[in-house]
Amino acid sequence: MSGKLDGFLAINTNTVTNEFCIKMKTTDTICGQCYSHRMLNTYRKSCQPSWQHNSDKLSARLLTDFEIPFTNSAYFRFHGHGELINKIHYQNFIKIAEKNPGTSFALWTKRKDLVRGIVPPRNLILIYSNPTIDKVMDKPPAGFDKVFNNVAVPHDLENCTGQKCKNCLHCYTRAGVDVIIERVK
After folding, report:
1. Lateral strand order in the sheet of 179-183
2. 152-163 per-residue burial string, b: 16 or more CB within 10 A, e: under 16
3. Which of 36, 51, 153, 178 could be joined to 14 by an S-S link, Cβ 3.0–4.6 Å?
């Protein structure tokens, strides 16, 4: 990854072909300002084939133990780009986290419907990505560990400053805050 995610490994999927992302892109939410769509249609077009491969592989069927990747990273992001496609996709992320118990995984999603009723392992931090700009949720929804909010105007409790994530880690550890607020860029 690059920018604020410099130093992180991530599994990304293709937002340009994700039906949920396509629908949300036309709404008055943070998705309407989607950086991933913009990048994948311009200077990151070359990422589309590999991220589409990930989309197809993760959402079609449960991966076998042999197909699940191993990482020795301390922190790992599910979806620097992308959104859950279906429940199988989420279950595959759970399998990856279970196979890598020494890694702290963080998954951002707006798809409450897909994660409801499926408890993630302790090393998978589930972050609700609040789609509504300037409507700060002061606690995570049921089943989520944290909530990530976006604001267009300064907020008194703004705590995601655009710094490098590796220097903060609020989203990647269970310690500290469970309500994250970032200004829209």
Report:
1. 9-11, 75-78, 104-109, 124-129, 146-151, 179-183
2. eeeeeeeebeee
3. 51
Residue with the larger pLDDT of the pair 157 and 68: 68
Angle between helices 87-99 and 48-60 (to 10 degrees): 90
Rounded to the nearest integer, the mean pLDDT of the chain is 90
What pLDDT score was predicted for residue 39? 79
CA-angle at 170, arms to 118 and 25, nearest 5°: 65
**pTM (2 decimals)?**
0.93
Among 108, 87, 120, 149, CA closest to 10: 108
How many angstroms separate the CA atoms of 47 and 40, rounded?
A: 7
What residue segments make up the domains of the chain, in order of their start?
3-183
Find residue 109's DSSP bridge partners.
Answer: 128
CA distance 145 to 154: 24
Check if the beta carbon of residue 9 is closer than 8 Å to that of residue 79: no
